[in-house]
Amino acid sequence: MWDFDKYQGNVAVKDEFGTALTYGELHKENDKLFEMINRRCLAFCLCTNSIGSIVGYTAFIQNGIVPVLLNAHLEKELLNNLLNSYYPSYLWVPTKQICEFENTHTVYSAYEYTLLKTSYEKEYELYPELCLMLTTSGSTGSPKFVRQSYKNVLANAQSIVQYLELDETEKPITTLPMNYTYGLSIINSHLLVGATILVTDKGLMQKEFWAFFKNEGATSFGGVPYTYEMLDRLRFYRMQLPTLRYMTQAGGKLISELHAKFAEYAEYNDKRFIVMYGQCEATARMGYLPAEKAVEKCGSMGVAIPGGKFKLIDVDGNEITDVLTTGELVYEGENVTLGYAECGADLIKGDERGGILQTGDMAQFDQDGYYYIVGRKKRFLKIYGNRVNLDEMDRLIKGKFDGIDCASAGVDDHMYIFVTDESIADEVREFVIFKTKLNPAAFKTIVINEIPKNDAGKTLYKELTKYYE
Q: Are strands 246-249 and 42-47 parallel, antiparallel or unpaired?
């Protein structure tokens, strides 16, 4: 996937504690880890933004081991369900968590991570081109993963390198989880050009993050809409960040006011602000708005990435050619992933999409060919970059609270759970927070007299929008 020897003297990863690995050293660490496995198999990687996590991930990818990337703090019950569905041969986990795993034995440790051998007697056959698997739905309980091929990952990383004009002088700082497709794409693309990835688990609201940023001369960061909402509150525009070259935004549509603020800041301060569009089903990126168009085309997600194509289709599947006409956005490119896996038996499946993805997003294009997302065909939100299926959430709530009448709705980064029983409103909200493991600020319960429904008993979600804040 990556040519570590080409950049062997460059620093590949460096953390806030001063630990660093050159590309040559990373290559050696990868070889050491692979020697402990020495075959193609499935491995669960419990991810943190740390050098140990990246060592494991790169070792697996470079040597044909298929990693399933998961948040290291995933709910134990859900993790056990996934383990018993997929039977991974190995686990790469933070060393401090190894006591949580029964029926395993330690094989190898490095950089505060440990390789555990599982005791599953069964292994599922792996499709030869299967590279890695990522979840699409946060941690709401679904065993569904996106199957990404080696060609998918490499093609998307190469495209990102091209349109962001990346080279070995870049120093991106981690602001997103590496088990999230957007965060992973930053790692993949920068490793491709020999750049230095600054690794930290600190957040934007912590002074340690900004100290690390300034001390190491970070050149870029990525963020979801919530990231930019926080930066706006932090009065980011007043910060002195001379080494910052560009900022990227994806993971949901940024409100126009914030898009304009950051685009104008970047233009005034000789930096670049690039809005992007993507889905895990397309590896990561499908569209981007060139920095020079950030102000002029405010609100747009841009044009297709190099090597990709967009089109709109109507309800009958016919292509839409008229400007400012809404249709479903369809993408074509080598980064369109193989399909889904919902159980271990699906790991042998090949390419089910043929390079074409119906995104489920409704869009329009203007007279210059720039695309604008105007809504979604299906019911899901992006909560701080994590996709949450609202229908699945309703099912979980109703499964937990017998007889409850509820409805989940909202806009990106703001989910409202409507209930008719005030006595359990707080309990429902806490359950949703527990299930998603996302920021509590994104969730609110609203008590109403009854859930609006039509004659067929289907919830009228549009009637709930009047309660949004």
A: unpaired
Contacts of 83 (CB under 8 A, 6+ apart): 44, 118
* CA-closest candidate to residue 343, choices 85, 29, 26, 56: 85
Residues 6+ apart with CB under 8 A from 442: 226, 383, 384, 413, 414, 415
Q: Give the pLDDT score at 298.
A: 96
Euclidean distance between the first and final Cα of the chain, in Å? 46
Rounded Cα distance between 276 and 15, Å, is 27
Q: Are strands 380-383 and 371-376 parallel, antiparallel or unpaired?
A: unpaired
| Residues in Cβ contact with 240 at an 8 Å cutoff, skipping those fewer than 6 apart | none
Phi, psi for residue 14 in degrees, rounded to 5: -145, 135
**Farthest-apart Cα atoms in the chain, separation:** 69
pLDDT at 142: 66
HEC assignment per residue over the chain? CCCHHHHCCCEEEEECCCCEEEHHHHHHHHHHHHHCCCCCCEEEEEECCCHHHHHHHHHHHHCCCEEEEEECCCCHHHHHHHHHHHCCCEEEEEHHHHHHCCCEEEEEEECCEEEEEECCCCCCCCCCCEEEEEECCCCCCCCCEEEEEHHHHHHHHHHHHHHHCCCCCCCEECCCCCCCHHHHHHHHHHHHCCCCEEECCCCCCCHHHHHHHHHHCCCEEEECHHHHHHHHHCCHHHCCCCCCCEEEECCCCCCHHHHHHHHHHHHHCCCEEEEEEECHHHCCEEEECCHHHCCCCCCCCEEECCCCEEEEECCCCCECCCCCCCEEEEEECCCCCCEEECCHHHHHCCCCCCCEEEEEEEEEECCCCCEEEEEECCCEEEECCEEEEHHHHHHHHHHHCCCCCEEEEEECCEEEEEECCHHHHHHHHHHHHHHHCCCHHHEEEEECCCCCECCCCCECHHHHHHHCC
Q: Please state, in angstroms and rounded to a whole number, the distance separating the CA atoms of residues 46 and 52.
A: 10
Count of CB atoms situated within 10 Å of the CB of 65: 26
The encoded tokens of residue 65 equal 């081991």
- Quote the pLDDT of residue 414: 92
Residues of the chain with pLDDT under 50: 138-139
| Region of residue 339 (left: phi > 0; alpha: psi -120 to 50; beta: else) | left
What is the per-residue pLDDT for 199? 98
Provide the pLDDT for residue 152.
98
pTM: 0.86
